[in-house]
Specification:
Strand content: under 5%
Number of helices: 9
CATH superfamily of the largest domain: Methyl-accepting chemotaxis protein
Radius of gyration: 70 Å
Number of domains: 2
Number of strands: 0
Shape: rod-shaped
Low-confidence stretches: 58-63
CATH architecture of the largest domain: Orthogonal Bundle
Structural class: mainly alpha
Largest sheet: none
Helix content: over 70%
């Protein structure tokens, strides 16, 4: 019963209380009316059975004696009093019934009025509470409830307190709406030291503002770094392309130098064979004086051939020297990667210089041999001595040609190694070019992403934008 009564609304509780009170008044009134009615009935019964009957019998038989006159008068007075009391009782019953009815009406009206004064405001506040629980603060308008706000009782106090709650929630909702729209400059009002929600929201805005500022700063740094990486990658790619072109040019020059070196080695072999033949001819001339002129002519022809060969060797040495100089220049341009190549180029240059020197010496020797051959023609007597000198010079020339041949072989091997090194350098340059292009593309993509991140962050309104 208590649980059922506790689940009722205040309005229903008041109505039920007044209904019970009215019912109790009605029951008491009914009991009183019934008691008075019962009393009247008893008096009426006594009156009808005793007083009235005695009055009728006395009046019907005879007039009362003088002795009975007083008794009769007393009885008459008693009857009149009883009748008056019965009339008063009936009036009392009627009055009581009227009072009960009026009490019931007043109780009903008072209950309805009190229920209206308490139940309706409480129900309205309950409706506002349900809307507030659903997050609907726009439809709550206390301007329409000015009568409730003007009340001085607990209902008015409760209404004013609830209005303050709604206005506070509306203000916080506006702050949250501005924050959701990206306005991080919103100053959240903390209503008191116990306002945990306001403190938490203010701290959230502050941390969110710091986080957004840090993200914007990082995005700017990423943009700057990616731009620097992109520029560096572009420069590296350009340098790699130029290096590849230089390596290709140097490789072509080395191919020509290699071909010339091979030809130089072949000519050196031929010259060595010729010098051997010349030496044999000199030996034969020394042994066969009769064949002196023919041998001298052969030597003269051989000397001319040797002069041509030496001229070719000298030209090859000159070209080798120029190529070595160019290779040294290209190695200097290559920087750290070209140090080893510069050493090889310098060695080739030295060998070319030696070859040129040997060619000049050989030319001088051949010229001397020619002069001696002419002298031998004129002076047959000195043929033997001249042939011995020629044999010595030819032997020296053979040694020089052999040295040139060996140097040419060494030069060809060195050029081959240089060519392999250049191929490796070219391969590394191509890899660097590809990597730099990929790095440039990645940095450009990173720059675009960071720019997009900045644009997204700029949608938020923060206190100071330095980016």
């Amino acid at each position: 019963m208590r649980k059922l009564f506790g689940n009722l609304k205040i309005r229903n509780k008041l109505m039920l209380s007044f209904f019970i009170l009215t019912l109790l008044i009605l029951i008491i009134g009914l009991i009183s009316v019934l008691s008075l009615t019962h009393l009247i009935d008893r008096v009426q019964y006594l009156y009808d059975n005793y007083v009235a009957e005695d009055n009728i019998s006395t009046g019907a038989t005879s007039k009362p004696d003088s002795g009975d006159a007083d008794a009769y008068t007393s009885a008459t007075i008693t009857i009149q009093k009883v009748e008056r009391e019965m009339a008063k009782s009936r009036n009392a019953i009627h009055s009581m019934v009227g009072i009960v009815v009026i009490s019931i009406v007043i109780s009903v009206l008072l209950g309805a009025n009190i229920s209206s004064l308490i139940g309706k405001p409480m129900m309205r506040i309950a409706v506002y509470g349900e809307r507030l629980a659903e997050g609907d603060t726009e439809s709550i308008d206390f301007d329409k409830d000015w009568q409730l706000l003007s009340r001085k009782d607990e209902i008015g106090i409760l209404t004013k307190s609830f209005k303050n709650v709604v206005e506070s929630i509306k203000n916080q909702s506006l702050d949250i709406r501005r924050i959701a729209d990206g306005d991080l400059t919103t100053e959240v009002l903390v209503r008191s030291e116990n306002d945990t929600a306001g403190k938490a929201l203010s701290e959230l805005v502050h941390k969110y503002h710091e986080l957004t500022t840090d993200i914007l700063s990082v995005a700017q740094e990423v943009t700057s770094g990616s731009a620097l990486v992109s520029d560096s990658s572009s420069v590296l790619a350009k340098g790699a392309i130029e290096q590849a072109e230089s390596v290709n040019t140097l490789t072509a020059s080395l191919d020509e130098l290699s071909a010339a070196t091979v030809e130089n080695a072949n000519n050196a072999v031929t010259a060595n064979e010729l010098t051997q033949d010349a030496k044999e001819d000199a030996d034969k001339g020394n042994r066969q004086m009769n064949e002196l002129l023919e041998a001298i002519n052969d030597i003269s022809e051989a000397s001319k051939s040797i002069s041509k060969i030496i001229k070719v060797i000298d030209d090859i040495a000159f070209q080798t020297n120029i190529l070595a100089l160019n290779a040294a220049i290209e190695a200097a341009r290559a920087g750290q990667h070209g140090k080893g190549f510069a050493v090889v180029a310098e060695e080739v240059r030295n060998l070319a210089a030696k070859a040129a020197q040997a060619a000049n010496e050989t030319t001088d020797i051949i010229n001397g041999s020619t002069q001696k051959v002419e002298v031998g023609i004129r002076l047959a007597q000195e043929t033997a001595a001249a042939l011995n000198k020629i044999a010595e010079k030819v032997a020296n020339a053979a040694d020089l040609v052999k040295s040139i041949s060996e140097a040419s072989g060494t030069q060809a091997s060195a050029i081959k190694q240089i060519d392999q090194a250049l191929e490796q350098v070219n391969k590394i340059g191509q890899e660097n070019s590809a990597i730099s292009e990929e790095c440039a593309a990645a940095s450009e993509q990173l720059s675009n992403q960071s720019q997009l991140l900045k644009e997204m962050i700029n949608k938020f309104n923060i206190k100071s934008k330095k980016f």
